[in-house]
C-alpha cells in the first residue's frame, strides 16, 4: 500500500513581485500567481490525481492558490483543513524589507545566513511593527506565542507535529492529500521526507505553483523520489528563487 501526497507552493505574490521578505505578512497573489494556481490544477487533473483533502496555511496566497487549483481540477468540494503550522517561516525584522537592499546593506554572507541557514533566525520583529502578527485574531489559538522570528529549525519543530498528528492520519485513511503552503514550510517538509542534512537543505528551493508528488510507504516516507508534474518549469522556478535579491 502506498499513499499519495501532493505539495504545492503558492503562486507568485505581490511581495514576490516586489522582491520583499514576506514571512507571515498576508499578501495576495498577483495575476500571474493566480494563473499559476489554475495551471497547477490543470497539471493535477492531467496527471489523473484526485485530491481528497486539502491542507493549507492560514495565509491567503496559499488559500487562493489551492482554491484556483481545485476549482480548475473540479475538486473544489473536498474537505479543507488550515493551520498556522503550515505558514511560511516568520521572517522576523526582515518582513517588509527589500531583498536586494538587504543584500547590498549586509553583504552576501549575512543575507544568505538569514535566508537559508538552518538554525540562525533573523532579528526579532517588534510587536508594534506594522508587519507584526501579534494580536491577529487568526492566531488567537497561539496566545502570546505568535512568532517574532523563526529559522528553518523552528519551522520544522512546529510543522512536523502537525504532519504526524493530522496529515499522516488522512494519508493512512487512503486519502490523496494536497498540501498548499510556502517556500520555507515546504522546504521543512521536504527536508524530512528526503532526509536532507541541515547543511544541504540550504541548496533546496521550491518553485511557485508546480505540484510536487510523493508516493509514500507505510512509514510515510517516500518509496520513490518526489516528482514535479512539470520538471522543466520546476527547475527554472527553483533557480529563480535561489537568485532572489541578486537582480
Ligand atoms: O520572503 C519570504 O517569505 C520567502 C518566500 O518568498 O523568501 P525566501 O525565499 O527568501 O526565503
From TrEMBL:
Record organism: Homoserinimonas hongtaonis
GO biological process terms on file: gluconeogenesis; glycolytic process
Role this protein plays: Catalyzes the interconversion of 2-phosphoglycerate and 3-phosphoglycerate.
Entry-linked HAMAP family: PGAM_GpmA
Keyword annotations from UniProtKB, A to Z: Gluconeogenesis, Glycolysis, Isomerase
Enzyme Commission code: 5.4.2.11
Listed name of the protein: 2,3-bisphosphoglycerate-dependent phosphoglycerate mutase
NCBIfam families (UniProt xref): pgm_1, PRK14115.1, PRK14120.1
First-tier enzyme category under EC: isomerase
Residues holding substrate: 9-16, 22-23, 61, 88-91, 99, 115-116, 183-184
InterPro entries found in the cross-reference section: His_Pase_superF_clade-1, His_PPase_superfam, Phosphogly_mut1
Family: Belongs to the phosphoglycerate mutase family. BPG-dependent PGAM subfamily.
GO MF terms, alphabetically ordered: phosphoglycerate mutase activity
Pathway named in the protein's UniProt entry: Carbohydrate degradation; glycolysis; pyruvate from D-glyceraldehyde 3-phosphate: step 3/5
